[in-house]
Amino acid sequence: MFRSIARLLPLLACAIAPFSAMAQGPANTLQRIQETHSITLGVREAAWPFSFLDDKKAPAGYSVDLCLAAVDEIKRTLKLKELDVKYKVVSGTERIPKLEAGEIDLECGSTTNTKARQDRVAFSNTVFVAGIRVLVPKGVKMDVLQDLAGLPVAVSKGTTSEKLLTQLAVNEVKMQLKVFASDTEAYKALQDGTVRAYANDDSLLLGMAAKNKAADKVELSKFVLSVEPYAIMMRKGDTELGAVVDRTLNRLFSSRDIDPLYKKWFATEQFNLPMARLSRESFSRPNKEPGVAMVLGYSI
Question: CA-CA to 185 of 20 to 30 Å: which in 76, 83, 87, 160?
Fold first, then answer.
């Protein structure tokens, strides 16, 4: 009998091994970075001024700069002489799957920390607070949510705006919701009159208008539909990497070095967006509070 058990032990070990690996949770990204001397940042193509490709197709923006500060801290923490930074452009629908698949290590975009997303990924401390509003041509009345009734309204696929507006279109206001693959396509639809309104984070809407030199041709709704805390996104359970990222951010916040970085991207001739109270409070009291819908009974 004991000989039979002995013969079975190698087979049992092979059977148990995959489950043991699963029980250990996600791979330690810092350990892999130390072994490969490489890190991959997920960036957006046109989430200006947070994360975009500049005229030379190089990644740039507020969130990209924050991620690069974290990369410097990772390099110091691991005592690496060299750390190769690679970039991969991701869309709103791709960002979480590519993070989970290990194609990117940090997502440096305009991603809102939500309770639903927390089931799949982890977030850094908040780096910016926006809110979902509606962009319309100048002169179009957009004082209350009901002003959207009957209008063709653009949203970008894979965003909190799509999720919230889809709920509101069913239960609150009968609007004609049009889903576009990217922010660029949605904004173009507003420009050419395909839609009469475009719902997205106010900071992104203002950024697109400024980038297209159309700030004087459009205006934001008077109502705000949500609170959207942006954060750097990483794999769920990757606590060591998260600690380094948060340490980087907290140092920027406490030293006020975040101020010149903010001004670099949000206080320019082309684009002037004063720091919102909620953003300033997040810097004073670092937190990971998820976003919320401002319409009772709905989620983002």
Answer: 87
